[in-house]
Structures are given as structure tokens and as C-alpha cells.
């Protein structure tokens, strides 16, 4: 039997807390019920998409939603054409996009390529989003039920929060990479088991494989998890120095195996990310560093929960809603920590995580109720170009706080559960005196002393407190909005005679981070069979810094300004010369304008630049092959 003191997931001191060891054989019914409930909740969260899965996108982040639909199409395109998935030339033609240097979700889109080919990227997006939420809750439940708590109900509550916390639901509005956290509980468990004697090779190999796979899902969440594990290990070492000294050699050996395997498996993709075509070094101006968490956000109910009020976003909703726990949960967390930290090592470690990552999330200036105060925050001391940290948002550090709160909820429920269990144990063993520890077995440390029967009220009170804190955070179905389908000319393949191999289709407006959301979907919903200029991505500028979208060329700038003004400016011969030059740069063979709120002015603009169009099916077409040859 492995000494539990070597595992920070458990408390080695039997005088402090009840052992969290579980029997090897467990009823499967409770696990299946928990997973089934998570699946149903995932379906419920995505309910508005399923009403018209091919015609709706996120109301909050429609462009992000369309980007991830495009990513699912990219995974299918790479598999179908046996192309390198780390790069694509189907967007931002002719330069292309470095997919490793962008949020590309390759660990999901490539394995699921056959399903995307069968169902299409729109259905695949909605299906995967709900499944990712449920899977994260499921692995959280597994971690808690196998390593931290005895009560399966406690594990269910904690797992539900890990998978469906307000911050996670906020990112579910168009950012499935931040809800795809199902590997993170497995990584945490494997890190904390590296000190097990005789198993360092196996634990290291498993951890290395998990870390490598997570790189292809979300590197930022992997970095946050690594920082959290570092804090957990240091907090454990301070509180258990003797056990740490006994396990440090084995731990480091396993860590070396994990790091070596991950380095071998991910060396080329990481090199490609920082040195491949269209790679970049940091974001221009360190734009994310100002995104610190508002202190009032911690006690505010999130927009997409039953107790949330969207109007609050106008004051403190300047950044992502990564905390927004509501005041009942904050109050419960404070009370639970006061009651549990003396007896529970996991609770003490959760407290350290909450404090450290809350302070670190504040940003360069303390923000209170939407007002930036003059008080300097920790990020005011962090250089904008610090490697690995240069692209992090301070507010996202609170996702670690959310995970620690989920663990604390499970510990709180489990503590209430044990109150009832100890009363029952006292009745079954009348010879045991109140306050006397039960005899230890060869496999388990001694459970805590039974409490007096008069304290049996603590169990329902504990359950009620947890329920009242989390029920207001029950998620609403994600809001969705209708979006126009692509023109029939695009979906039916009418474009094919106009776009020979090696040439591009130029949609108007040209896709960008601000404009051209529908035209980006033309590419996604036609299996990316034609390349397009522009797009929604991060690429290098002339200095090698990361910027959003393709650098604007004169013609794309003219298109965007015309859309904003609603009127065509006076065109010059220089405008026409630049338009032809831009079309040659894009390797264009055809320019296509579909239905658009600014269709009239856009058609007048393009006509003034390159001549009159033809009406083909439901679009305006400018065949420019002769013009740019």
C-alpha cells in the first residue's frame, strides 16, 4: 500500500481529516447517473443552437463561433487532403495562417474529422460544445470521487461546478477551447502522484502524453494548470516537509520522464508555432495585460446564470466573466475555509490557490465596480514581453480560483456528509466513547472521532448551504442569433467554374476580425474548397509582432470605410490601380458579393474599381481573371 502522505490529494494526518481512500470496487450506477446528468446539462446549455443548428451562432461572440466552425472544417480538410494541419492556405491567401500560433483546437478537430465530414461543421460545433462541458464535469467528478471525497454526491456537486462554472459558461459563448478542460483533472492527479514509489516511469509517461495532447487543445489552460500545480506542490511541501523530502527524488524523476516525453512528441509543433511560416513574437503592445479582474465581479452573478442580470455588464463587464460567483458562494467559501482549514490539508491548499490566483488576477491597476483606481496591481510589475506570459490575460488566472472553489464545494459537502456518518457510526459501535478514534486497519488511516448525536443538524444545514450558493448559478441556455445562410451560388457550387486551382475567391466584404463574418462562413460551410483573402486569426505584422487579422491592403481598407460610411467616396485612378494590384496579390480569379445590408454601396464601389458585374444566381460576380493576368 502506497503511503498516502506522499499524495497531496489526501491528508496524511488521520487526526485531522477522514481518509479519502475508497474501496477498489465501486457501484457503477452512481457514476453513470452523474455522467448522464452532466450530458443532459450540456444539451440544455446548447439548447438554443439545436433549434436551428445550421442557422444560429452565439449572440455574444458570433465571430468566434464562426471561427471555430471554420476550425472544424479545417480539421476535416486536412484529413481529407492529407495536408499538414499545423498550417492552412485556405484563409489569408496567399500568406496563410499558422494554426499552432492560433487557437486551433487541433487535438479535437483532427480526430473528429470523419464526424465533421458526415455532419458538417455547424452540427459538429454544437455537438462538441455540449460534450466538452459534460466531459470536463465528468473527469472532475472522477478526480474528486477517487481521490478527495467519500460522498459521490459531493463529487457530483464539485464536478458540476468544474464543468459548468460561470466563467466556463461565459467562454462557451463561442470559445469551446476554454470549456475543453477534460484533460486537466487527469493532469493534476498524475502530477500529484509522481511521488509514488516504484511508479515514477509509468506516472511520468502518462503525464507526458496528457500534457502533449493538451498542447493541441489549449496551451493557455495548460499553462494555468502548471502554475496551479506548482502552487499546490509548494504549499504541500511547506506543510509536509518530511513527506516531501522522502518523495522529492521520485517526484523529480517522474517529472523528468514526463517533460522528456512531451518534448519529444511536441518539439516540432512547438518549433513550428514560434518559427514556422506566419509565426510571431507576442502581441503588439501587450494588449491583454490590462484585462484584470474587477473586485466586484467576484460577488456578482454572471450574465448567463439564472440569477444574472445582463445590465451589470455595462459597469463591470469590461472583461471576460471568469469569476462572477455571486455573493452567496463567496460567503459560503469564506465560512467553509474557516471551518475546514484546521482539519483538512486539501482545504488549506485550496485556500492558498484562491488567495494567490485572486491577487494575481487583479491586473496592472485595481478595478472596483468598473472604476480603475490608482492602486497598482501585481501586473504593473510584469514586463509586457515576458516569455510565456506575454499573451496571458490576468483575469483568466481566476479560472484557477474557480477550480479551487469547485474542489472546496466538494470538500464542504463531504464534511457535511461525514457529520451524519459519524452519528451513524456511533450508533453501530456503542462501546466506543465519544471523542475516541476508531481503530485503524492495515489499509486505511483512522477515521475521525464521531460527533455527538445533537450535532446531526449540521448535515442538512451543510447541504442546504451548498445548494443555496450554487443554485443561483445554474446556467441558462446560451443565447443564439440567426445568421443568413451562404448564397446558393456558394453552397451549390456555382463558384467552381470561376476558381481554378491556385486561385482565390474574393468575397465582399473581405473577412476580418471586425467585418465579413458571413463571408468567412462561406469557406467553412463549403469544406474550404476555395481559398479566401483576409480572415479571423492572429498573424505577424511587419515587425514580427502578433496582430489580429491580415494587414489591410488599400482595397480592403476602402471596402471597410465605405461600409462604415454607407456611401461611396470619390474614386481615383490610383484607387483603381491599387485594386488591380491587390487582386493580383490575392491571386484572385473572381470577386463575389452576396446579400448584405450594404449591398448597394458595395456593388457601386466594386463596379467603380474594376467594372460592371454579372448577376449569377443570387450573387454579383466580377470575373477578374483577364484583369489580373
Please tag this protein with its features.
4-stranded mixed beta sheet, 629 residues, two-stranded antiparallel ribbon, 23 helices, alpha+beta
Shape: elongated
| Arrangement of strands in the largest sheet | 7-10-12-11
The count of strands amounts to 12
Distance between the termini: 76 Å
**Alpha-carbon Rg, integer:** 28 Å
The helicity comes to 40-55%
- Total DSSP helices: 23
Transmembrane segments: 32-51, 125-144, 153-172, 222-238, 250-271, 324-342, 349-368, 388-411
Keywords: Membrane, Transmembrane, Transmembrane helix
Protein name: DUF6311 domain-containing protein
Region (Disordered): 1-23, 422-450
How would you explain this protein's 3D organization?
It is a single chain. This protein is elongated. Helix 1 (28-45) runs parallel beside helix 7 (152-164), helix 10 (200-215) packs parallel to helix 12 (241-275) and helix 11 (219-239) crosses helix 15. The strands form five sheets. A four-stranded mixed sheet has the order 7-10-12-11. It contains 23 helices and twelve strands. The chain has helices at residues 28-45, 47-50, 62-81, 106-109, 113-119, 121-147, 152-164, 166-171, 184-192, 200-215, 219-239, 241-275, 313-316, 327-340, 345-360, 398-428, 458-470, 488-491, 517-525, 554-565, 573-585, 599-610, 625-628, and strands at 56-58, 87-88, 97-98, 365-368, 371-376, 480-482, 504-508, 538-540, 546-548, 588-593, 614-616, 619-623. A hairpin with a 2-residue loop joins strand 4 and strand 5 (371-376). The longest helix has 35 residues, at 241-275. By secondary structure, the chain is an alpha+beta fold. Residues 1-6, 12-24 and 426-452 have low confidence and may be disordered. Helix content is 50%, strand content 7%.
Amino acid at each position: 500500500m502506497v503511503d498516502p502522505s506522499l499524495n497531496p490529494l489526501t491528508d496524511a494526518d488521520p487526526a485531522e481529516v477522514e481518509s479519502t481512500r475508497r474501496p477498489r470496487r465501486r457501484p457503477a450506477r452512481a457514476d453513470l447517473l452523474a455522467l448522464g446528468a452532466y450530458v443532459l446539462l450540456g444539451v440544455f446549455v446548447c439548447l438554443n443552437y439545436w433549434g436551428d443548428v445550421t442557422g444560429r451562432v452565439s449572440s455574444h461572440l458570433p465571430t468566434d463561433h464562426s471561427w471555430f466552425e471554420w476550425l472544424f472544417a479545417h480539421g476535416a480538410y486536412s484529413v481529407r487532403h492529407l495536408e499538414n494541419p499545423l498550417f492552412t492556405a485556405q484563409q489569408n491567401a496567399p500568406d496563410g495562417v499558422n494554426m499552432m500560433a492560433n487557437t486551433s483546437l487541433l487535438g479535437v478537430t483532427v480526430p473528429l474529422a470523419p464526424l465533421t465530414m458526415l455532419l458538417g461543421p455547424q452540427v459538429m460545433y454544437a455537438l462538441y460544445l455540449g460534450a466538452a462541458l459534460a466531459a470536463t464535469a465528468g473527469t472532475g467528478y472522477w478526480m474528486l470521487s477517487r481521490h478527495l471525497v467519500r460522498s459521490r454526491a459531493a463529487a457530483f456537486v464539485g464536478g458540476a461546478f468544474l464543468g459548468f462554472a460561470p466563467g466556463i459558461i461565459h467562454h462557451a459563448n463561442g470559445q469551446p477551447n476554454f470549456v475543453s478542460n477534460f484533460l486537466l483533472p487527469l493532469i493534476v492527479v498524475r502530477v500529484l502522484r509522481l511521488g509514488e514509489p516504484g511508479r515514477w516511469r509509468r506516472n511520468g509517461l502518462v503525464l507526458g502524453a496528457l500534457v502533449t495532447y493538451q498542447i493541441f487543445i489549449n496551451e493557455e489552460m495548460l499553462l494555468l494548470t502548471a502554475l496551479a500545480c506548482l502552487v499546490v506542490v509548494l504549499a504541500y511541501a511547506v506543510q509536509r516537509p518530511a513527506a516531501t523530502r522522502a518523495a522529492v527524488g521520485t517526484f523529480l524523476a517522474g517529472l523528468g520522464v514526463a517533460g522528456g516525453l512531451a518534448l519529444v512528441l511536441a518539439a516540432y509543433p512547438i518549433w513550428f508555432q514560434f518559427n514556422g511560416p506566419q509565426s510571431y513574437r507576442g502581441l503588439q503592445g501587450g494588449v491583454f495585460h490590462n484585462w484584470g479582474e474587477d473586485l466586484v465581479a467576484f460577488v456578482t452573478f454572471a450574465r448567463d446564470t439564472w440569477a444574472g442580470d445582463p445590465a451589470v455588464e455595462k459597469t463591470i463587464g469590461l472583461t471576460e466573466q471568469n469569476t462572477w460567483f455571486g455573493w452567496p458562494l463567496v460567503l459560503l467559501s469564506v465560512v467553509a475555509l474557516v471551518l475546514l482549514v484546521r482539519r483538512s490539508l486539501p482545504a488549506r491548499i485550496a485556500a492558498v490557490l484562491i488567495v494567490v490566483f485572486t491577487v494575481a488576477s487583479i491586473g496592472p491597476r485595481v478595478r472596483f465596480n468598473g472604476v480603475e483606481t490608482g492602486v497598482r496591481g501585481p501586473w504593473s510589475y510584469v514586463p509586457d514581453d515576458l516569455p510565456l506570459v506575454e499573451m496571458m490575460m490576468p483575469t483568466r488566472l481566476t479560472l484557477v480560483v474557480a477550480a479551487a472553489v469547485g474542489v472546496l464545494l466538494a470538500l464542504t459537502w463531504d464534511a457535511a456528509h461525514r457529520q451524519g456518518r459519524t452519528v451513524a457510526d456511533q450508533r453501530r459501535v456503542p462501546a466506543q466513547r465519544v471523542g475516541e478514534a476508531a481503530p485503524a486497519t492495515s489499509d486505511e488511516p483512522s477515521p475521525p472521532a464521531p460527533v455527538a448525536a445533537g450535532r446531526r443538524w449540521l448535515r442538512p444545514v451543510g447541504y442546504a448551504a451548498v445548494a443555496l450558493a450554487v443554485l443561483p448559478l445554474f446556467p441558462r441556455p446560451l443565447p443564439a442569433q440567426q445568421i443568413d445562410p451562404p448564397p446558393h451560388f456558394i453552397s451549390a457550387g456555382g463558384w467552381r467554374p470561376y476558381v481554378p486551382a491556385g486561385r482565390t475567391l474574393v468575397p465582399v466584404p473581405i473577412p476580418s476580425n471586425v467585418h465579413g463574418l458571413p463571408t468567412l462562413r462561406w469557406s467553412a460551410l463549403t469544406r474550404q474548397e476555395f481559398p479566401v483573402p483576409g480572415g479571423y486569426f492572429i498573424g505577424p505584422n511587419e515587425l514580427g509582432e502578433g496582430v489580429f487579422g491580415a494587414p489591410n491592403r488599400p482595397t480592403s481598407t476602402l471596402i471597410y470605410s465605405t461600409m462604415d460610411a454607407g456611401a461611396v467616396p470619390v474614386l481615383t485612378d490610383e484607387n483603381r490601380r491599387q485594386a488591380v494590384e491587390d487582386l493580383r496579390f490575392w491571386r484572385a480569379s473572381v470577386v463575389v458579393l452576396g446579400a448584405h445590408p450594404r449591398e448597394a454601396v458595395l456593388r457601386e464601389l466594386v463596379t467603380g474599381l474594376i467594372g460592371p458585374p454579372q448577376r449569377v444566381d443570387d450573387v454579383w460576380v466580377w470575373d477578374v481573371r483577364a484583369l489580373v493576368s
